[in-house]
Amino acid sequence: MEPNTQPLIEFDPYSTAFKTDPFPMLATMRRDVPIYQEIDKDGKHRIWTISRHADVEAILRDHKRFVSNYRSLFPQEASDEPEPRSQVENLISDNMLGKDGHDHARLRTLVSKAFTNRMVQTLRPRIQAFADELLDQVVEQNEMDLVDAFALPLPIMVILEMLGIPVTDRDRVRAWSQALIDPAGQAQEEDLIQELLTYLGELFTTRRRAPQDDVISAMVQAEESGDRLSESELYSMVLLLIIAGHETTVKLIATGTLTLLQHPDQLARLHTDPALINSAIEELLRYCGPTDLAKSRFATEDVEIGGHLIRRGDRVRLLINSANRDEVRFNAADTFDITRQHNRHLGFGLGIHFCLGAPLARQEAEIAITTLLGRLPNLQLAVPIGEVEWDLHSFVYGVKHLPVAWG
Fold first, then answer.
1. What's the pTM value of the predicted model, to 2 decimals?
2. Handedness of CA 253, 259, 261, 264 (dihedral sign)
């Protein structure tokens, strides 16, 4: 079955309307065009956007027929890849997110030991110390931008400490990270990228000479012990861990806090029963998670999904936040309920690409929100909801700034 190429809606995942409140549009898609076809800008490749939970889940699980690396699927057509890579994309693409099969398993194994539940639990005292340190700096002010003062620096401090990058360099790392995901201009982008590469190159050299108990040392040592970690992979994996290690968690903490403030009944339940925090985090991941789109997949063969024929080489976009609001999968899907049971959301993906940092993100969000609510009584928005600024350029969904007050 071929869909009507005249869409019933205009879908733009980077539009202001989608970035600020995607859920009405996602509901329309699930109802009217759950499998939405486009032709890319060069007119050569088909793009399918999938919005229903059952279809998204099936594709995430099927790593044989849907892969992440178009170049491995059509190596002779690398120059004809849909949306050819920019310099930035080439720099950050040689990591496990863009790999399949053995290459993916090799890179994932390399860093997986740092993100086990047991290892993450050992970080709890440090995360708590960072959270308290950040709030100590603002608690007497009775107001702050929750993003800039708390939700942003906390995950950066944690991931930098894990990697072995000095936490005192967090502002520089943040600027580099922003340049990679939201470049302000070509010249500035190139300068910042070169600055970042120089910084990491010097750090790699230092760790080769004097390894420490950190993730970068482990990766450098693996490279030298014949684990076939190339120089490109080394740079790319570190960049992946920096970006993925904080961008989504920032949005989970900040947008999650906003969602709780917008649902005072649920916030009151959490105050009354703090043991609900883990259930609340799962509901935040489902209800307003930071992941709008999963990384694109490419069909390795002709596949029928929901009555539509997706042909070999077609690109597939998976709408995670739509799947997590699917009325077929979740009872009262548009209701925010921190006591929700059997909450099998797709906020961290599924299958072989399930988010490696899920245990860390959950723990950071738990500590951050618990500490906020415990130390800042009567936390509330400091501006009308209509004045909250949303991030329109990042690859994740959530607020850019969140003025709050307490006292």
1. 0.90
2. negative
